[in-house]
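Researcher: Next sequence.
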Amino acid sequence: MTYTKTKHYLLNGTNLFALLGSLTLSQAASAQTVILKADKDMDEITTTGQQAPNPALSTAIPKDSNRAPSADGGDFLRSVPGLTSGRMGGHALEPVIRGQTRSQLNIITDGASIMGAGPNRMDTPASFVDIDSADLVIIQRGYQSVKNGAGGTGGTILFEHNAPSFEDGRTFKGRAALAYESNGDIWTASGGVAAKAGDFTLRLDAHSKDAGSYKDGDGNLVRSSYELYGGTIEGGYTTENTALIVALTHEKNKNTLFPGAGMDSPEGDGTIIRGKLRHDFSGSDILKSMKINLYRSKANHIMDNFSLRERYMMFRQADLSAITTGGAFNLDLVMGESDISIGMDVKNISHDGLRTGNNMMPDMLDQIQSVLIPDASVKQMGFYAEAISPLSDNLSLKSGFRFDHIKADSAKGDLLTTLGMPVSANKMVEKYYGLSPEKQTENNVGGLLRLEYNMSRTSSFYLGLSHSNRTANTTERYMASNMMPMMPGGMNPSWIGNPFLKPEKHTQVDLGYGFHNEDQSFLISVYYDEVNDFIFRDHARGQLGIVQSDGALIYRNIDARLYGIEVEGKTTLGQAFELSGDLTYTHGHNKDIDIPLDQIPALMINMSLSYHQDQWDGGIRLRAALDQNRVDDNAMIGSGRDAQATPGYAVADLFASYNLSDRIKARFGISNIFNTTYANHLNRESLNDATSVQVNEAGRSFYLRLAANF
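Model: Next structure:
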């Protein structure tokens, strides 16, 4: 579901803080009147009236999804037009927008950020999202606002949970859901309750998932099992002009298998503490509102090569943690006919971890094999201003400016390993980059200009120009994995960060057109992104600035280019049928050595035909991708990160739902009806199964989900 649907879940009384600045609907506000109506059964807000569309903005309501239950937030995002994600196992899928991923995307959950601790991305930020309780997911494709923090050059993903609302004098409500998937024997349970006492509210959510390993279309077992559980406790205080929310979220994962990695994860967890304050000024002609947002998150991650797979020697375990502390202060103003936001935000990341080992005894891992992340920190403070100004009745200009001051350092760069020859992270940096590490400071300036023309109440056009920056993360700067070469004179699997990386500089032009009414919609956006100092994970071959030529993984800056197109649309057929579809294409090029950029998704197409009645609906969906032959799969000349030139595929799904009563709904269907064997191009190389090159997707699976509100 995209934003062309008129249903959106919003905060009762005082709109959800992050949503107000993120939906970017204010550009079109002059052309519409919005009426809000609460639905007592589903706690949703329905907007009526016309709204000029934004072709580069998508929203999705997870509870309305007609797809199989999602493993996590990254898995759910595959259902949103313009997005996909790469798979390393059954859990922790990595989202990609316009060919950009990882810290090129800002992923924010209820105003808070969490950085995964695992450098190999076994605990991506989206994997900590309880998608079963999320009310709204907002995706800005491309750089659309300076208010979402530093970075976000590829886009911003917002996972939002509503404060509870109550109707008809009720002071208590709840929900419960149970789901089963046949392929992998996957059970999911989730639920929540909410209560109200005067101006105070309390919300409790909990969920668990027990997933076995699934089989691909050829019947081969893909090592993908995992266990998840977690929950949130949130308290709120709301008056006519003020709202305060404080919350604690904890997510735990266990026994997670990764066929696309050399290790599995026996244990990991993430905790987020957050608070939000919003105050609306009722007596001022200039001040509209003030928002304060504070959070602290911590991710712990353990991975090893023996507890969940067979191993007879060279036992290794990595224990890492990442703490993210941040906040933001924002003032919304009105000056003349312009809506203006000014503010500041901070985000401090501390990342630390060792890999220990024992060559013969797995129960005596008392020796330091690598100082994987040497207590590294990246501290950011940003200041921004953004304005939306009408130039005429139908034309508006959005303008923004952002300045970020960044400091980076590592505190354990001189800590020596004790297994094998003693070596420190700093010595590894000197060996590969020829310089001694030192504190780094950046001052990055960016901004945007965006013209939006409402051609009518149902159609709009936009043209945007932006310059944005993305600083190197702690893994890219300070990773220090010390490994022996695979063979004399062969590739060296060591992995060494580069503290001297320059920030990526993205200069983007994008334009789009959108049309929608009650029966049809059509949206198209095209973009071009010229990237200076793109941060590229490469192999050491004596390139400029690289001292060694032993094939170890290193980082360096290159110049790159990205461009592409996104199309989506729908139309009603008669009274009950709806046909919808979307197409996404990205072209990425490494300008330095004139080869394709790695990890660029193939051209992807989705189409569905659905039938709607009062009590039930159903349909069929086609998910397809063309061959991806523009690959960087040769580590002798490029990164070699693409597993192969990936064949195209076409997969069909059946889906349906039935309202058993006013408060109980059943969803059921068949994923991959014809049991097709296929892999998304972004999926990792399969390291545990000689029958496949990449980690394959699941074969045929039947699913059933029952959800009830009370």
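Model: The chain has four helices and 37 strands. Confidence is low (pLDDT under 50) at residues 1-50.
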